[in-house]
Specification:
This protein has 78 residues and is mainly alpha-helical. The chain is built from three helices and no strands. Helices cover 47% and strands 0% of the residues.
């Protein structure tokens, strides 16, 4: 707590923020990255996340392109 008070005095910010609020400002500044990450994770909707079944389906095919089945077996190399 002493370090926080010394930092406020050293940078001359003591005149702008009353001493009881120094600790709240420092806490808010330290917690801000965590709040940002949590808010970004909450903004991602479930519609944007594909289920495993949807990932297996072809998304888009070009006109005239043939649907090619891909074999799961490894090929023999000669």
């Amino acid at each position: 707590m002493r370090d926080i008070d010394q930092a406020w005095l050293q940078y001359g910010l003591d005149a702008y923020v009353p001493p009881p609020f120094h600790y709240w400002v420092v806490t808010l500044f330290c917690a801000l990255p965590f709040m940002l990450v949590i808010s970004l994770l909450c903004c991602i909707s479930d519609d944007e996340v594909l289920s495993p079944e949807e990932m297996k389906k072809p998304q888009h095919t070009a006109e005239g392109a043939k649907n090619v089945k891909v074999s799961q077996k490894p090929e023999k190399l000669e």
